[in-house]
């Protein structure tokens, strides 16, 4: 999972120079993006459970098999939600029932009132405010506007939709959390501008021009969001720093999975950038970034395009089936591996062997690292390419723990009861 950008792709309005799409790095710009065939990879899972019955304990064993079969079905269903959405289909919308509400506008802390859909506590820092469970038709308007607030707040499980809508604007409004919301069929899903200490987590944002835009933000945490079928970019980060972008799905955009411009001091880790029309990750004029543990797959022009950037480390990512896996253009101090023995990245088109080991790959014996470097078509070298992909990130996997642990406990109790019955 990983990054990309340059000065050349900045400037024109939806033009092409040297086969690179150019666009101004402004909110929405006026980019004209081509549409490519796309679709999320369907990762099916199958499982079987076998058992043998004996006459003396058939009832107990059948019960155990029934519990195991139910658990397997639950696992398959959960994996399907986490990994599915073939063809970019919209994810299921409501987690709970919504109540209809007019667009909400909160100007300063005085605006946290019941009339604005707010309830007291617990948004933390001395029990602030919560806005939750609303459905807002924001056609040609803003669903929720937070302006110049300083109190801690949480926006949770809100659905904002409507043609031409801007789902949420967090403007100079720090200490906010937006979680578990659905923003669809609008223009900009969420704009966080001039914010500090903002948490954007677990949201679903689809069919927008831009999914999430962070403009002039600091100490932001953007994690576990699902952004699909957006036109210009699922994620757009501009003039921001000291932030974390992790465990998001940025797929099926007509242009880019994620764009980073004039930004630095960021960790971009454990994300999925797949089936985007031009770039998985595009960077321009960025610095001091770590791009680690991402899946960059089937992007139609470049997997990662690093442009005009300095001090970037790219390692432990999976580059699979991109038209051009990676490019660095007019960059300095770029590292495409984490040294030996940690290694670099997995490249699906790497054709080297693994017969040797060691820092110079001259000691007999395989070590999971290619014996020869992976060379980019344009700039850059991964000295220690991985021979096999890193582990696949499944953001929803924790949802499996409760049913699995519960099932294990039930099975243990049943076996103990059966042993006790036999002894009698």
Note the total helix count: 2
Strand segment count: 38
Give the assembly state of these chains. single chain
Shape from CA axes? Answer: elongated
Strand order of the biggest β-sheet: 3-7-10-13-16-19-22-25-28-31-34
Distance between the terminal alpha carbons, to the nearest Å? 58 Å
Overall pLDDT metric: 79
For the largest beta-sheet, the strand count, sense and barrel status come to: 11 strands, parallel
Strand content: 35-45%
Q: Indicate the radius of gyration in whole angstroms.
A: 24 Å
Structural class: mainly beta
* Residue share in helix: 10-25%
> Which spans have pLDDT < 50 for at least 5 consecutive residues?
1-27, 29-95, 392-407
Task: Explain how this protein is built.
Helix content is 12%, strand content 36%. The radius of gyration is 24 Å and the shape is elongated. With 424 residues, it is mainly beta. A hairpin with an 8-residue loop joins strand 5 and strand 6 (129-132). An eleven-stranded parallel sheet has the order 3-7-10-13-16-19-22-25-28-31-34, with no helix packed on it. Strands 5-6-9-12-15-18-21-24-27-30-33 form an eleven-stranded mixed sheet, with no helix packed on it.
